[in-house]
């Protein structure tokens, strides 16, 4: 099973998209192969929900991070190899030999490029195989890791006598037609299955090595995943991965305190904190390195956010109704007994203050009763916090504002309690809007 994450949550957290500016996928996509990039996409689209599977993948990343080697071959080397292997070869060897001589003759007589392309592709394949052999030696360190099965499989494939003879060849060689036919038939017929397995292992090494290298360079940590019955979510030093010098914060949720009521002025950092948590939860379920100092969490069934909800012209939904539908969707998942992390940023801001107060209070109290899930509810309506103070399931924290003269500054540091900061009019006055309109 995969972690339940809908499109709105993916967009709120900017998780996916190779070409999406600032996406979490693009942050981690340092792969050198198309196959590695596809594997990375698959991992991003299918976060895990088994503590054992999460921890096993985490250990592989950590293993490669400790190895600290750079994946040397470039994308073009693998693309040339993949293109070469995709060119079909006759199944009968004698036909393959005749076909090779025919292409060689055509290359001389009519300057047909196909023979040269086969030679170039074979040379690229030898280069990839040589690098695979070097990696196999590097990884053959007798350590016990979750990657041992793939290490043994890689070594077994490369130990094939026929393949070892090919690897011994010099690259950039001009192969004679018969020799080309021999190796072409070997790679595309005799060892086709083994070679496909080898390339898949290489793609996984590409992902593990480059993600692990990024995690080490950025000072990220790895999550300790526990089964959902533990019902723990404990993070120290949490920050947003897109912010190199982001301020870190600590968060803790458990069965007794499963909801954080978050207040603070605009620009104080509430949304960024919630996005940081959502991204950390998502990456933790992938076994990936996380922008934090430490994280222990029970696996969840899903992650749900309502941060950048907008109206919908196609359906005719207003902003408020779109918010209501998001809350309804979260309620359906939580009420079904699933274990979720739910993040609501400024609930019901699309309606009047009185309705927003009543709705925020009622919904927050209702969600707090579902102990298997963890929630953050942020709001500007601090009076709701006063009404919730008797609820033992609710924690209270705020993102403070510090006034420097008449200019607000923001430490972005989570502080226990409920804020009374109201700097909206100060910001408007500082921008000179009223003076502009008077003039």
What is the name of the CATH superfamily of the largest domain? P-loop containing nucleotide triphosphate hydrolases
Helical segment count: 17
* Basic shape: elongated
Question: What is the CATH C-level name of the largest domain?
Answer: Alpha Beta
- Hey, roughly how much beta strand do the residues contain? 5-15%
What is the succession of H and E elements? HHHHHHHHHHHEEEEHEEHEHEHEEEEHH
Short account of what is shown:
The protein has helices at residues 7-13, 24-28, 34-45, 51-67, 75-86, 93-109, 114-139, 148-158, 161-167, 177-190, 192-218, 270-284, 319-335, 353-368, 382-388, 424-430, 433-438; strands at 223-226, 233-238, 249-253, 259-264, 294-298, 302-306, 340-345, 374-378, 394-399, 402-404, 407-409, 415-416. It is of the alpha/beta class and 439 residues long. A hairpin with a 2-residue loop joins β10 and β11 (407-409).
Plain-language structure description:
With 439 residues, this protein is an alpha/beta fold. It has two domains: 7-26 and 219-438, Rossmann fold (3-Layer(aba) Sandwich); 67-216. It has 17 helices and twelve strands. The protein has helices spanning 7-13, 24-28, 34-45, 51-67, 75-86, 93-109, 114-139, 148-158, 161-167, 177-190, 192-218, 270-284, 319-335, 353-368, 382-388, 424-430, 433-438; strands at 223-226, 233-238, 249-253, 259-264, 294-298, 302-306, 340-345, 374-378, 394-399, 402-404, 407-409, 415-416. The strands form three sheets. Strands 6-7-8-4-9-12 form a six-stranded mixed sheet, sandwiched between helices. Strands 1-5-2-3 form a four-stranded mixed sheet. It has a two-stranded antiparallel sheet with strand order 10-11. Strand 7 (340-345), helix 14 (353-368) and strand 8 (374-378) form a beta-alpha-beta unit. Helix 5 crosses helix 7, helix 6 (93-109) crosses helix 10 and helix 7 (114-139) crosses helix 8 (148-158). The termini are far apart. The mean pLDDT is 86.
């Amino acid at each position: 099973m995969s972690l339940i994450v809908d499109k709105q949550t993916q967009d709120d957290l900017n998780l996916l998209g190779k070409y999406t500016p600032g996406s979490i996928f693009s942050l981690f996509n340092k792969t050198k192969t198309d196959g590695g990039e596809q594997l990375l996409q698959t991992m991003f689209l299918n976060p895990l929900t088994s503590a054992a599977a999460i921890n096993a993948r985490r250990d592989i990343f950590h293993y490669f991070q400790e190895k600290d080697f750079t994946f040397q071959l470039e994308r073009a080397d693998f693309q040339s190899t993949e293109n070469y292997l995709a060119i079909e070869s006759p199944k009968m060897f004698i036909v393959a030999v005749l076909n090779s001589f025919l292409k060689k003759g055509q290359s001389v007589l009519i300057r047909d490029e196909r023979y040269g392309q086969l030679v170039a592709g074979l040379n690229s394949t030898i280069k990839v195989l040589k690098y695979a052999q070097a990696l196999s030696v590097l990884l053959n360190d007798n350590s016990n890791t979750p990657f041992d099965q793939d290490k043994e499989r890689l070594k077994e494939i490369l130990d094939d006598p026929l393949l070892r003879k090919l690897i011994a060849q010099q690259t950039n060689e001009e192969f004679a037609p018969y020799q080309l036919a021999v190796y072409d038939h070997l790679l595309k017929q005799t060892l086709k299955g083994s070679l496909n397995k080898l390339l898949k292992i290489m793609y996984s090494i590409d992902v593990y090595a480059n993600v692990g290298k990024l995690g080490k360079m950025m000072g990220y940590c790895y999550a300790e995943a526990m089964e959902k019955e533990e019902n723990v979510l404990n993070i120290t030093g949490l920050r947003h991965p897109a912010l190199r010098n982001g301020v870190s914060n600590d968060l803790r949720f458990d069965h007794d305190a499963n909801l954080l009521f978050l207040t603070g002025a605009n620009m104080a950092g509430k949304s960024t904190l919630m996005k940081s948590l959502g991204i950390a939860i998502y990456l933790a379920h992938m076994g990936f390195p996380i922008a934090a100092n430490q994280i222990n969490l029970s696996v969840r069934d899903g992650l749900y956010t309502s941060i950048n909800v907008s109206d919908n012209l196609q359906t005719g939904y207003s902003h408020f109704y779109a918010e209501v539908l998001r809350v309804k969707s979260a309620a359906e998942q939580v009420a079904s007994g699933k274990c979720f992390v739910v993040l609501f940023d400024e609930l019901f801001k699309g309606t009047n203050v009185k309705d927003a107060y009543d709705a925020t209070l009622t919904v927050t109290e209702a969600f707090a009763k579902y102990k298997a899930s963890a929630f953050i509810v942020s709001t500007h309506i601090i009076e709701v916090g006063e009404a919730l103070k008797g609820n033992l399931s609710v924690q209270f924290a705020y993102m403070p504002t510090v006034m420097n003269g008449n200019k607000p500054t923001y430490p972005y540091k989570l502080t226990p309690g409920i804020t009374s900061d109201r700097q909206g009019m100060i910001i408007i006055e500082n921008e000179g809007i009223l003076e502009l309109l008077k003039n």
